[in-house]
Amino acid sequence: MSGFFGFDTALPERQQPAQPQNQGFGGFAGLGGGNDQTAFSLGGAGEEEDLAVYNWGEQTGSLMEDGDLANDETFGDVGPMNNNFQFSSQPSAPPVSKPKTGRGPIASTQSRYKPKVAADPFAFSEDDFYSPRKAASKPIKPPAATPPLPRTHSSSKPQSVTAPAPPSSIESLWGNPVAPASTLWGASPASSTRPSGPAAQNAPATTSQPPPMGQIKTLAEIEEEMSRMALPDQPRQHQMLSMDEIEKQMMASMEAAPAPSAPPPLANVVQPTAPPARELTPPQINLAGSGYASQQALLDSMFPELGANVAPGATASFPGGEEDRPRQSPEEQARLHAMHERIKDKIESMSRYNHLMGNSDKDFITRIQLSQLATADPYASDFYAQVFSALRRRQEAQAQPGENPSVVQVTAGAAFGVSGPANRFGKMGAATMSKLNGQVKKLVENRLNHHKSNNAALQGALGKISRGGVAAPRPVLAVPTSGNRESRPTSILNDQSGIRRSALTKKQVLFALEELYDSVLELEQMRREMPPPTAMEEIDRWNDRCGMKVEEIWRRLMVMEPLDVSNPHPFISLMNPVKGQRLFPRLLRHLPHQQALTLLTLIIATYPQLDVVARAPPPPVSDTSLLTKADRMDRAKREVETDSFLHCVVPGLDILIQRCGLGLIAGLLGISAQRMEVWRVACTRPGVALFTALLSRAQSVLRPDPANPQSAPPPDAGEVDQWNKIYAYFLSILLPHLSDLFPSSLVQRNAFGPGAYLMTTNDTSDEMERRDAEVWGFTAALAVNAPEEEQANLVGALREKILHTVQSSRAPGVSAEARDRKLRNVNMFLHGLGLDASMIE
Amino acid sequence: MLLAQQLMFSFFKTLTDQVITVELKNDLSITGTLKSVDQFLNIRLDGISVEDPERHPHMLAVKNCFIRGSVVRYVRMQARNVDTTLLEDATRREAKEGKK
After folding, report:
1. What angle (nearest 5°) sits at the alpha carbon of residue A779, between those of residues A774 and A780?
2. CA distances, A657 to each of A353, A647, A728, A778 (Å)
3. Which residues are within 8 A (CB) of A165 and not within 5 positions of it... i.e. 6 or more apart?
4. Which SS3 state, helix, strand or coil, does residue A8 take?
5. A350, A488, A499, A685: least CB-packed within 10 angstroms?
6. Any idea where the Sm domain is (chain B) (predicted)?
7. In terms of Cα–Cα distance, which of A589, A779, A601 is closest to A679?
8. For A31-58, what is the mean pLDDT?
9. d(CA A294, CA A290)
10. Global pTM?
11. Of the candidates A769, A781, A779, A783, the residue with the CA atom closest to the CA atom of residue A740
12. Helix/strand number for chain B, H first, E second
């Protein structure tokens, strides 16, 4: 090699800038194309000066398009312009004079030095990712016209080694159904011994055509070339032989068969130069998987000189085959040809969907993803989704008898929405699902074991090692927290003792409520895990556990505290916040009947201590502008609490009351009459609700409805008597204040003075009407229960109210609905007496 | 796979096939049908529409999208799809697990 990588390092003559240089690199001067005034001419006009004067842009007229003559010199000949462009930098020819052109050593960026075979950083990955054949293709450069070099190898070495590992697949990199792709970045060891197809194509067809450039030859390749050149007359056989094991065996039998005549007829691809043995490459591609290619590469790197010897079997049989060749050709040719065809088709069909992810691949990946999500206990980590979907399923099962899964449960630990990969999992049979489950379990156990072993390893260290996770980052301070919450000072049980205590503070209440919630949640979870009905012992044990849990809840409810231990009673304190009210129906479900009744009694006894009763919000006013903001917010809050109470607690009380007998009802009524100012409580909505419930229950017991199968057995005389007495007493204390129960009356009464603006108009709003309706219902219950003489009193007490309502309903300016409502309300009461509003004039 | 993360993941799993509005940290609000969610709360939305199309004209042609969980600021959904009581319970459980 002369000069610098083949470049002629002679400096261009400054005095003759225009002469195109043919030897070596002519510098840019030659591009001037003879123009004295070329822009690139360094030595041009400013010769006298030491500075180089640049004349760019001084050229008027056309673009300087006359540098194209030396394009070949610059870029080298890259072969025909088609889709088979070779990107790699294989030097086009060995550094000997080429017969083609008279130019000197190629002045291109081709490197004559090949990278170390093992160190080629790119090819392996390409190899592994794509078919090895893609990487394997290397141009063969045996120009037939080049003088054969002295052979260094025995002729027994089949040069066919270098057989063009013909195109990786039927399709090239660019989608053309041909052109073997060549390595992008140079030879992989695997490819080094497999010269590419194009080279093979080029070789036979255009022998004078320089091999595709851009391929870095390995040592092995050079050897191949040399050996190849030694046998220019038999280029085809080399190409036929391949490194593929199967092919080797086949080749062993059909050694020399593929005469030059065979390949050309097979050429059905774009390249007119039918690359011989192209049909062999498909098997090579598919069968030589990623591991195989690297294995081959390793072998090649270890035995470069054997690169040509890839088919030892072939080698062995080569001499033999050589002799047989002439005999075989006629008969074997056809057979081999057919075999080739079949193989090619088979390979083509098998490799049609290469490089695509099929369903099995996607399932594989999905399984991996699922394994990440899998847990042993679905309820532990996936609580919301599980319960939600269970609830929805139950709802829909009731709503419409049909299946409508909202959350598909795939494995024990993972679930997807139906819109997820449901189809795919739908196709999974039972076998795959069970396999999946097994794998998931194994994964979970592995993870658990792994965790355990980790902890063990850390025990050798001094001190405490705490690994923080996302949920519990490593704490900066180690604050001791005792596990037993009951012993904390905020727990009321430890705080004070004695006959009387101060009321629970808000903080204590909230803490107690949270503990209560925890207990209820645990109980519900326990109930969910009921053992199958077959195992009696387990069921017993489970029942015991549930019972214990209920006991714990009962204790935490503090119902058994003495009645007057504090004001409000601890239980009442718990029921004051909305949180507690919402909890009430849930825990009611779990309490046994007796305890529920105790609860009921307690509530009724301490009813006035409830916030919603003691500080009931005044009836809503249409215009609140005169109230301060604090007032408004306070009222709103109270309203919310009341609503929540009515929504959550009162229905529960109702249910309990419905289960009571008359004696109990009488007792409850008596308690309430004794312990509270009945009328004051009755002014509140919860109070009204409670009394209505009691009275209606009494009525239904007293007059059992024959149609209702659930009605209680008729009470005995003693109970009835007791009831009557208590009721009379109840009515007597209530009667004077009856008309004040109505919210509308209340508003009117308070409407004097500055509060007059707060008064609602005669045409009361919906809300008021509704509240009035509640009271009317109460009065109706009263009326129904009332004995004859009392009824007159009742009517008398409510007379004005009734008249007022009826008259307003008949007033001209009242809408139809309002009128109906008013009449309905009044009639509720009047019907209880056997009267009707129409009877009133 | 930390247990604390699972609550939100579990919650979103129940929201699949519902219409939600995702507001991103770059103030882009996207309304669409929740197709799938993963443990990082990455969201796949189908049939999306942008709240303020004039400010984000590049979204005109987008029909489906994948949103990385870390860029989400808010997710808005209809209240009837959420069981708040159950959510409270699930949160209590999660808190207990975290304390353990």
Report:
1. 95
2. 73, 16, 20, 16
3. A133, A136, A137, A138, A180, A191, A194, A195, A196, A197, A242, A243, A281, A284
4. coil
5. A499
6. 7-81
7. A779
8. 54
9. 7
10. 0.55
11. A779
12. 2, 5
What's the rounded Cα separation, in Å, for the pair A556 and B3? 29
Partners of B45 on chain A (C-beta within 8 Å) are none
- The CA dihedral of A801, A802, A806, A807, to the nearest 10 degrees, is -50
The answer to whether the CB of A337 falls within 8 A of the CB of A273 is no
Query: Which candidate, A156, A333, A289, places its Cα nearest to that of A227?
Result: A156
Q: Which amino acid is at A786?
A: A
Residue B74: both structure tokens together: 């808010």
Whole-angstrom distance, CA of residue A73 vs CA of residue A208: 17
Which residues does B contribute to its contact with A (CB < 8 Å)? Answer: 1-7, 10-11, 13-14, 16-17, 34-36, 38-39, 83, 85-87, 89-90, 92-94, 96-98
- Contact of A148 with A249, CB cutoff 8 Å: no
Which amino acid, one-letter code, is at B59? M
Q: How many domains does chain B have?
A: 1
- Helix ranges (DSSP H) in A14-96: 71-75
Q: Is A125 helix (H, G, I), strand (E, B) or coil?
A: helix
How far is C-alpha A788 from the geometric centre of its chain's CA atoms? 71
C-alpha to C-alpha distance for A201 and A180, rounded to whole angstroms:
10
Q: What is the CATH number of the domain that holds B6?
A: 2.30.30.100
Residue keyed to tokens 């409000």 = A568
Give the integer Cα–Cα distance in Å for A745 and A90.
105
Q: Please check whether residue A385 is in contact with residue B87, taking contact to mean a CB–CB distance below 8 angstroms.
A: no
Residue type, A595: Q
Which chain B positions have a beta carbon within 8 Å of A372's beta carbon? 1, 39
Count of CB atoms within 10 A of residue A781's CB? 23
Distance (Å, rounded) from C-alpha A785 to C-alpha A186? 104
- Nearest beta carbon to residue A471 from set B2, B34, B90: B2
**Sequence-separated contacts (24+) of A36-45 with Cβ below 8 Å:** A38/A64, A39/A64, A41/A17, A42/A14, A42/A17, A43/A14, A43/A15, A43/A17, A44/A17
Q: What's chain A's average pLDDT?
A: 66
Length of chain B: 100
Residue A415 C-alpha from the chain's centroid: 10
Provide the token pair at A413. Answer: 């630990």
Tell me the average pLDDT across A328-334: 82
How far, in Å, CA of A137 to CA of A462, rounded? 61
pLDDT tens digits for A163-186?
444 444 444 445 444 444 444 444
Dist. CA A538–CA A524, nearest whole Å: 17
Question: What gap in Å lies between CA B33 and CA A420, rounded to an integer?
Answer: 12
A130-145 residue pLDDT tens: 544 444 444 444 444 3
ipTM of predicted complex: 0.85
- Most A CBs within 10 Å, among B1, B2, B9, B14, to test the A interface: B14
Single out the residue of A233, A159, A221 nearest to residue A196, CA to CA.
A221
H-helix segments, A37-99:
71-75
Please give the Cα distance from A270 to A21 (Å, whole number): 38
Q: Are A190 and A127 in contact (CB under 8 A)?
A: yes
Decide if B44 contacts B36 (C-beta within 8 A). yes
Contacts of A381 in chain B (CB under 8 A): 1, 3, 6, 10
The CA distance from A441 to A439, in Å, is: 5
Domain interval for residue B55: 2-99
Collect all residues of chain A within an 8 Å Cβ-Cβ radius of residue B6. Answer: 381-382
Alpha-carbon distance of A422 to A418, in angstroms, equals 6
Establish whether the linkage from the previous residue to A258 is cis, with ω within 30° of 0: no
Dihedral, CA atoms, A524, A580, A486, A522, nearest 10 degrees? Answer: 10
Cα A125 from Cα A130, distance rounded (Å): 8
